[in-house]
């Protein structure tokens, strides 16, 4: 069923009264909003400041702005998870209160996802500013993030998709929510989760965003936390990756499978009851299964799921067949 909105932008706010007005102005100026295809969702995580009244002013004048305040403070990723459940758009983007976008940024990104159904997430280059509440149109920023084309190996080294990506809402059904126990690397963990399952992302080689180097923001507000969380995430995924060569990792179980087949054929053709053959066939079948499950522990690639299923079934079959064929 086609949704009313193409994109839902999730704004998580806490102590962001000085930024929230500019954030909402930036969103309603988006070409996608002007076409009625952008939903704005504001999650107020029990902020002690008065973002609520500013949001309500915008709600009075502009449609398609949803506001929810929580009773207690939550992590930004808990707020994103709330927003995703409320989202009616096919695509999701996070709208950080202190960052800004080119006026057609969301439309450009949504169009790319429309045109490339195999891409799960898009990101673009960004300008960097030290000036609060600058807009994309009036910034004097010259420094920029020139993000590389996507590769999973690059993603494992750093969060190379930047702070303003857009992704498909449908991804959350198979891959779950953002981990709410992270404070600033939960998005990085989710991108690695996608990449580890073979999902593809893409760079749009245009400058579409303006990133504020906020000294009080989530990334820089607590010295060292972002770095430590990112290291934890990288360690989690790098240490749980498949061997570099998937073929080499299959040599042991495949060799066991071939030997098991030879023994099975030998036992059927010659109807032998030799104990060494019976025991050897069963042991080799067990070795095959152990090899398969050892491989399963490491491999994650989506495209190898069928291979894994076939190997498991074959292993179970060759555990049973040699025994019954001999007796």
Automatic annotation (TrEMBL):
GO molecular function: glycosyltransferase activity
The keyword Methyltransferase is assigned to this record: no
Keywords in alphabetical order: Glycosyltransferase, Membrane, Transferase, Transmembrane, Transmembrane helix
Superkingdom in the source lineage: Bacteria
UniProt keyword annotation of rRNA processing present: no
Domain (Glycosyltransferase 2-like): residue spans on this chain: 8-122
Residues annotated as transmembrane: 250-270, 276-296, 308-326
InterPro entries the UniProt entry points to: Glyco_trans_2-like, Glycosyltransf_2, Nucleotide-diphossugar_trans
Protein family per UniProt: Belongs to the glycosyltransferase 2 family.
Protein name: Glycosyl transferase, family 2
